[in-house]
Write a structure and sequence with these properties.
hydrolase, 7 helices, Rossmann fold, 232 residues, single chain, alpha/beta, AB_hydrolase_fold, hydrolase activity, seven-stranded mixed β-sheet, globular, Dienelactn_hydro
Length: 232
C-alpha cells in the first residue's frame, strides 16, 4: 500500500498538466505541515501532491521519530521504501513522469534526489537541506555520532540507491542548504553538486547556500523555490 496523498491545485484538473509538483516532507514531519508551501505553489498555477510517507501520518507512525535509536533504525528504510514506491504512486494517481517536478525538504530531499536519479524523464528536482550523496552522508552521520562504520552489506545497499555515479535526468536542478545545518551535513549536497557539474558537465544546476541558516526551510528558501519553479 502506498497510502494517501494530499492534493493542492488552483484548478481541479490533474491530467495532462505540464507541471505537477510532488512534494516530500522531512523526517518526523507531516503532509499537513506543508500545507502553506503547497498552497503558495498552487497559487502560482502548480498542481501539488504530497504523498503520505511510511512511518508517518496514518502509515504505521512511529511513537518518537527523534529518538536516536528509532532514527537510526528507520530513517534509511523510510527513504529507500519511498523511492521504491514512486512508480506505483505515479501509476495509481495517473501521472506522466515528464510532467513531474520533485521537491523535497530534509529527508524529503534525500527521497527526491533518489527518485530523480532513477527516472530520466522527470522534469526537475529541488532538494532543500537534503543530500544526493547517500553513502558519504551516512559516513558523515556515523563520524559525527561516534558510531561504527558501515558494514560492506550496508554500504552496498545504499549504493543501489545513491544518486552519485548514476546518469540522471538532464532536467534542471535546484539545490539549497543552510551553511550552519547541524542535522543534515551540507557536505552531501556539495558532493552531489560537484558530481553533476564536474563529472556530468551539467550547466542547468543551481546551488545556493543560505548563510547563518541551520536546518530550516526559511522564507528566503520558499521565495527562491517559487521563483525557480516559475522560471523552468
Amino acid at each position: 500500500m502506498i497510502g494517501e496523498y494530499k492534493f493542492y491545485a488552483s484548478s481541479n484538473e490533474l491530467q495532462d498538466k505540464e507541471k505537477i509538483v510532488i512534494l516530500y516532507h522531512g523526517w518526523g514531519g507531516s503532509s499537513k505541515g506543508y500545507m502553506e508551501l503547497a498552497e503558495e505553489m498552487a497559487k502560482e498555477g502548480f498542481i501539488v501532491l504530497i504523498p503520505d510517507i511510511i512511518y508517518h501520518d496514518e502509515r504505521k507512525p512511529l511513537e518518537n521519530h527523534f529518538d536516536s535509536i528509532v532514527t537510526r533504525k528507520y530513517f534509511w528504510n523510510t527513504v529507500l521504501q519511498t523511492i521504491d514506491e514512486f512508480d506505483e504512486f505515479v501509476r495509481v494517481v495517473g501521472l506522466k513522469k515528464k510532467n513531474i517536478i520533485l521537491v523535497g525538504n530534509s529527508m524529503g530531499g534525500f527521497i527526491a534526489n533518489g527518485i530523480f536519479a532513477m527516472n530520466p524523464n522527470i522534469s526537475g528536482l529541488v532538494s532543500i537541506n537534503g543530500s544526493g550523496s547517500f553513502v558519504l552522508t551516512e559516513k558523515t552521520f556515523r563520524l559525527r555520532d561516534k558510531r561504527e562504520g558501515m558494514t560492506q552489506e550496508e554500504e552496498n545497499q545504499l549504493k543501489k540507491y545513491d544518486p552519485m555515479d548514476k546518469p540522471s535526468s538532464l532536467s534542471p536542478v535546484l539545490l539549497m542548504h543552510g551553511d550552519s545545518d547541524t542535522i543534515i551535513p551540507i557536505e552531501g549536497q556539495e558532493n552531489y553538486y560537484k558530481y553533476l557539474t564536474q563529472e556530468e558537465k551539467r550547466t542547468n544546476i543551481e546551488w545556493e547556500i543560505f548563510k547563518k541558516v541551520n536546518h530550516e526551510f526559511t522564507p528566503a528558501m520558499m521565495e527562491k523555490l517559487i521563483g525557480w519553479l516559475k522560471s523552468i
